[in-house]
## 1
Amino acid sequence: MSAASVVLVLGDDVSTDVIYPGRYMATVLPAETPQYAFADLGVFNAKLKAGAVPAGSVVVAGKNFGCGSSREQAVSALKGHELAIVAGSFARIFLQNAINLGLRLIEAPGVTAAEGDELAIGVTEVVNLTSGRRYAVRSLPAARQAIIEAGGLIPYTRKRLLGRSAAR
Amino acid sequence: MGMTVVQKILARASGRSEVAVGDVVEPAVDLAMSHENAALVINQFQAIYEGTGLEPTLWDAARIAIVFDHRVPAESPKTATNQKRIRGFVGINGIAKFHDIRGDRGGICHQILPESGYVLPGAVVVGTDSHTTSHGALGAFAFGVGATEMASIWALGHAVNVEVPATIKVNVSGVLPPMVGPKDVILHLVGKLGAAGATFRVLEFHGDAIRAMSTSGRLTLCNMAVEAGATSGIVPADAETIRYLKEEAGVLEAVHPVVPDRDAAYERTVDVDVSALAPQIACPHTVDNVRPVSEVAGRHVDQIVIGSCTNGRLDDLAVAAGILKGRKVASTTRMLVFPASGRIYQQALEAGYVADLVRAGAVVMNAGCGPCLGVHEGALGDGEVALSTTNRNFKGRMGNPASDVYLCSPAVAAASAVTGVITDPRQEGKP
């Protein structure tokens, strides 16, 4: 169990256009994308850029977080700030991108929280320490576990390639 | 138990006789498409090889397609430099399926791939774009991936750890009424399923309305399958698919449709009867916020947009030109048209559609993604309203979070251009 503060609360269907607006898509480097995380949520973006949001802080959202575009910047921008996302559910490509890049996602159907709440995030449940409510965690697709364990898709693919060339 | 189309495709691509929902497979990829985000794919591809002592090597350059469409011509030095870098990579690696910024063979990736004959029934197609679902229109299993996943595919030649998705059968029956088309069908369906209603699932389209639909219309349907969260949309290939590939896409080789088994197991069946369907509108700020046009008719529109991978094909431009010929775009609105490809642009010129639209006051732009995703041109002012044939209306989608985007068919967009307010094309022209 790790405890973390909720720094932002959003609703259902948060699209990648909200997480990382399309007009910044020419920026691709993971070192540069974090400045545009939630760029149109001015106050929160300013906090992020000012370094006022500690690593490990939590964004809580409803269903279908990350819907829309496949843009990986939406993940690398959040990863750059080491945010964790606790949401009712995630859109498929966003979920996959997050696993591939090592962004921490926790799927907890029905989760609710207010800004400033403290969450204890465990493997099987999320406890909102402020409200006392508990939410079951739905595990990520088992097929993807190997990628998470390898530390992301780049090291995972590297391992597969090396295994292949060793087998030759 | 029989298999769905996608199960059959995944079994073939994974070298198995059959697969069941939930099986984990590593399907060989037949076509891997990227656009300007190839710049990021190249970075990640090179990162994979760091410290391995291996030379970065594409698994098969002939199966990689790169199409510039999101920001064409380049809107900034940054984009132009990314595009330049990609061109260099394309040259060094001999990627022949490369479509640069050109009036003859350029355009939007989801139009270029079909019209170039790159997508065949039964193929596994991946693209670093969520609307890669479009290619299911030709009976392929096509899904969107991120840039890192594409880099992994460039190295390995297959996708890793793919769970075989469940399939929802969508039965579309009836005859589409006048001024109602494929866009209205898919908007209605997304509204019915909800934005996450098909997440991790495939939508397999059946029914007499699908069999009667052109490949262009099927592309519109499958394009927006992702707006219901679907991994992919797919229309089992048929005589129309073969006709399109032979006559319009120049495919010479034999085409082998993949059809589902009679006893294929579907998670559920959704029935849509289009006989009485009205033109549909997706209201701000989610694609599943869908209503019949009558509920929002009369609302002022500042900018009409016709085009995109969803509705920028010749039949879409024909509908718009048919409504606007000899008339004028209302003085209180402005109208932007962007064909889906250079080839379509030429066909629209030859058919006289471009002249009809320009004389009416529309601005006909180059083929590309245009204003759809708010990165390039056609931005909206604070408080402005757009009515667009594109596929997304999320807050900020067209570049300004203080604006509203409504989604509709080309017929609704063109009828509304004449009046300057959201207009039912079945009523348009009547007193």
## 2
Amino acid sequence: MALLEVRHLKKTFGDRAVLDGISFDLEEGGIKAIMGPSGCGKSTLLRCINRLIEPTSGSILFRGQEVTGRDTDVRALRQMIGFVFQNYALYRHLCVLDNVTVGPRKLKRMSRREAEGKALHELQRLNVADLRHSFPSQLSGGQKQRVAIARALAMDPAVLFFDEPTSALDPVMAREVAAVINQLHSENVTVLCVTHDFELARSVADRIIFLRDGRIRAEDTADNLRNHYDDHEIRTFFGPGAAPV
Amino acid sequence: MTFVDIIAALSKGAAYTVGVTVACIATGFTVGLAVAVIRRLGWRFAAPLTNVYLAVFRGVPMLVLLFMVFFGLPSLGIQVPPLAAMMLSLGLISGAYLSEVFRGALNAVEPDEILAAQAMGLTRWQTLRCIELPQMLRASVPGMINEFTTVLKYSPFAYTVGIPEIMKQATALVSTTMRGVEIYLAVGLMYFSIYWMLVLGVWTIERCFRVPGLTHR
């Protein structure tokens, strides 16, 4: 059974269908990337799955349980989905350690000592434990991204969502983030990653979902998308010359 | 009577001035914070109430409100002690202005941080308490200092309802000594000293909670 099964998901804003019948599965321990042009509904899809945005219709099964219903415990669902935002969204008034402990303390009711132990473990896993007393304004983009990932991991989520994790980073830091996602993959963490960065998608994802105008146009491996599709849109987006490989 | 004697005579009123100021600041801070939180949470039923409160307490002069409370309410059978009358007029006016200071500071909290808190599973209240309010209070310090200073400067109105604060002591002293220049100069110095103590107090608290990259001077 897939960890996440999305079926015929639709989201409309007024007359505009941002998501128009999206269906895909995400297996436990798998990594999928969602790519597509700006405005195609990638981020909306992530936000619909963890109910930050209410889907208009369709079904989302999380470990076999329907999570679009009104009686769904949305907060429990969100605690199972670690969300890493494009611009990190670290809490500016909290040091790194407190950024990572706030979830375990407030949501898992851990004591401060327990939460700090858990936070230090995650920060060490991401090689930023020595920054634990720094504040977000004192960190580089790559360090902020690592702290944001540690914050998400501290909740022991079933799956990690990345929303454009490298769009604000230079190529060196983007490769660092790719290495971190690959490290998580080797530790059997399930990941769904929205990105514009083909290099990132190719290096981390088992399969890439290509979204356009709210619909899935293709789902395949990076190499197949680049080399074996005749569809004009896919060739334009992934074909040789579209992005450096 | 030397200048030091004048200061000593006026200092009897200084405690009342500080007491009135602190009581009105405490009232204003509590009410202003409550109004800002209610508006932030978007409780629809409370919106008309907070709008009326803000309009009335920002639109009616302080002295009129004070007299309505202190001299008007007794005619309805409600006796209000002088300090309570100051808190219900100056304190609530200060609350109305502080709620606007807090509203501006709350709007300065990054929407992505609020979204991240909700994505994590925090409730709206937890998000407000753990993420928004701590940032809001830090960003509000300059506005709060302004408002606290205004409260101090309006505190001499307490004299009109019989609280023996600095101005009342000074007026009594002038009427017996006829040395207005020195006495009112001493009054000015005392208010200036209280003002500086107030500012230093707020700055000390601000320094304790300063966060790199979030608060600037």
## 3
Amino acid sequence: MEILLIIIIGLLHAGGLYMLLRRSMFKIIIGLILLGNGANLLIFLLGRLVKGHPPVLPDGAKIFAEIYADPLPQAVILTAIVIGFGLQSFAIILIKTVFKVLETDDLDELNSTDEEI
Amino acid sequence: MNNILVIAPILLQLFAGTILLFFWTKTQIQKVLSILFSFLSLGLGIWLFLLTWKDGIQFTHAGNWAAPFGISFVADLLSATLVLIASISGLAVSIFSVGTMREERLKFGFFPIMHFLLMGLSGAFLAGDMFNLYVWFEVVIISSFVLLTLGSTKSQLEGAIKYVSLNLLASSLFLIGIGFVYGLTGSLNFADVAVKLSAISNRGIINVTAGIFLVSFGIKSAIFPMYFWLPASYHTPPPAVSAIFGGLLTKLGVYALVRTFTLMFGGDEFLGIMLSIIAALTILSGGLGALLQKNLSKAFGYLIICHIGFMVAGLGMFTEVAILGTVFYLFHDIIVKTNLFMVAGLVLKINGTQDISKLGGMYKSYPLISILLSIPLFSLVGIPPLSGFWPKIFLIQGGLASEDYFLIAFIVLGSFLTLWVVAKIWAEVFWKNAENLPVKASGLYFNQMSKANQSMVIIPIIFLSIVSLYIGFAAENIYVLSEKIAADLMNPQNYIETILGIKTILP
């Protein structure tokens, strides 16, 4: 399971970085989403994968006798997913507005600077 | 000392932002309330600072769960001072935006979002937990995205694309770093992580983790070679927004670097060399970039980068005197950079352009204002005894002590480049003969403003100039404060013991 996750995380990061380096704005957003998901899975993996041991004390026990699933990484990932969702939706709206105003999807054309009072 | 009121500065800004949301279209009420809340937050900042100064570190753990389990909020002297300085800047920007922001932008919720941004900043300064710091970073960047794009002009949108994508990348990297730290230590509390990381013998993996944090915070604080988003975006929003960005956002990255690289990854030789090289190149590229710019705000944007280099240099030397210089520079820089962008805004409002080749004759037409504007400009250069001079002394002293002659050369070069840029700006904008600039019909010029609005533009500049003069002329007080902070940062024993509530021995 770990090996599979490692490969998936690697693919997500590689794909994300590849998309980030493209010239199209739309692909940048896709790249950021992939990268975010890769990071979330990475936390999940580094929080240790444990199967079938919930972080709940058995009846009568005072401490955990054996290794248990750590709930914290999952809480962290949940928060990160929610935050990432908000940021990504902002970014999508932003590129939509940029596309409407500038009528281009090509980042190389975004190089003007004008002023306003 | 356990004190739940540590989070009061955050709650106040949250309350302010929420209240202001209820007056969405009533901009007059928003203006009054925003200034009122900014004064309150300044009061709270002073209170928290005095409390921390007198009684030592203040902290609270969420739900009263002891340290590594409950999320901690910690106000040590560095955090408390930064909260205070952020509230000073916040007050100035609040007043400045009453004077300069256009009505239609205020109607899209400028003030509430500015207060949410300040909430995020206070939260980030007070966070004692790595993931909590991440969350506050996100609060800050989402607010800054909105502030940056408010008004949706063409240049703003172009700047925003670069700013948003690089900041999202930095957040992802921060998250990856958090994953690594959690995998290594099983904890996210700064104090706990510091203890557990020092027990790990494989330094290689710790350096990789530190490198990820360096890139992530490096993008946010605009160090070489990750600063390209800053000159592309900081000059595009209205001056009030630029002022709060230029003063506080990159400094948040520097704060995060200082916090993690003293508490968690401190004292590593490899990281020290990395930071020194990055600092030198940041100073060089920022200074040379500023020299080339024709746009006043863009030149100031490059100067931000140049001066971030000074702070990172102190961190790279990693001696107590150098850290003292870094901390001192941080305090001075927040005030001066906020002020500089307000100065740029005032120049724009008076002349209708920020192109320094077209500007001129400011000294002739506005002598008093010009003398006022000379204070932030020359504080920036660090002409003694103004505020920029003292931290550089300590940075150079730190470099001499650790024999980093190479960094000293770059610090001197950086100061010289800053002097050159400011001298050029002074000659071009204030002394040169004025050209007849075309008058824009849509523009709101300074001399068309009402007297009340004019004073709203001038007062914050005077206010921050007084603060910078205080930092310059009462440097002894700031020195004592920075020395104490530097001692705390270099010997985090006290911090760790206070937060974890146990005696620990760091190697």
## 4
Amino acid sequence: MNEKNYSVLVCDDSAMIRKTLGGILGEWGIKNIFEAGNGNEAVDMYREHHPDLVFMDIVMPEKTGLEALVEIRSEDPSARVIMASSTGTKKNLMTAIDAGAFDFIQKPFEKDVIHTLLRKILKGELD
Amino acid sequence: MFSRHFGQFLLQEGIVTPQTLSRALARLSDARPLVGILALAKGFMTPAQVREVNRIQKREDKRFGQIAIEKGYLTAEKLEELLSAQKNEHVLLGQILVEDRVLSHEGLLRALELYREKSGLSPEGYEAMTGGDTDRAVASVLAGQPGGKNSLVRIWGELFVRNVIRFVDPAAALDPLAEKGNGGLVTFLQPMKGDRELTVFISAEEPVLADLARRFSDLASGVFDEMAREAVGEFLNVSNGLFTVNCSDKGIELDLLPQEEVPGNDPRLRRKPDGLLPLLLPEGILWAGILC
């Protein structure tokens, strides 16, 4: 499936989550996986690599995922950012939608949910 | 579940040996609670009455409940209540120990009474603990604590225990007999702000947290290393996240802040928590607290 070399940025302060998501993305043949541990790193890495997709946690030190989302989308309105967080409150959902998040997934991740999402976003474009 | 906790109690009291307990626990999943043992545990029948009905059962092809009603030991309503309770794991361990002749009927009754007395639980709390009613059991353990009447503390407590059962160990049990010291405990805490300011923490010895991490994440090996720390932190994060969602549905907005691993003597842990729950896991006690 990897005719176009897809790249994904995974931003989460938990190395465990980054590894878990990285593993799922790897199953899709995605090799260009960038990792960021907080919102600041995420913004920097987005600027540098312009990934096709971003998975973004919300609660992180230094800069939250919502702040990073706003910054990334203000620089690149076409950025596709999926918020991936344990705290799917109405307020966070609304803020994320208002800021242009592509989708919101609730932790703990279910592999099937990630697969469905990836199928929707990536496979659709490759077929 | 109550069986593990009650087994621990029997062990601590010297009523059973580690070997007999281990054998009995191994048989738990295949066993089904008997009406006679349930009637005994609920105080509906005496040991002598249960033995008499058991004797009659050997010569008459009748069910325990039918004989007990005929003898006037049970009413139809009481029998109905016992049959409903059969669905729970209620005092199943005690039943196995009676079957294995580790305990007599009288011994089981004394052990249950001793447990009730030492746990300090109200009759309702005891009923909830033994019947596997998690929410009522949590309320009972929180009763008498500073935040026992605080609905937010109750919501947190009920949700936290359900999360442990769901994500970590289906057999996790509240242990109202556990005693907390801070020595040797590793603590993860996570503050929240918004409509309220509060902090939730979990504390335990390293082996307990290592085991929690392994059960929560395939990536953790069972050793308390960096990955285990990540997994414990993520479990707390997930649990607290679901708490914020629950609060949000009730009109209370809370934002999670990054969590920290702190020593047991961290100043924030000096004051008595508004809610503190001891959960018995395979490797020991996991303490969960909330400071409002």
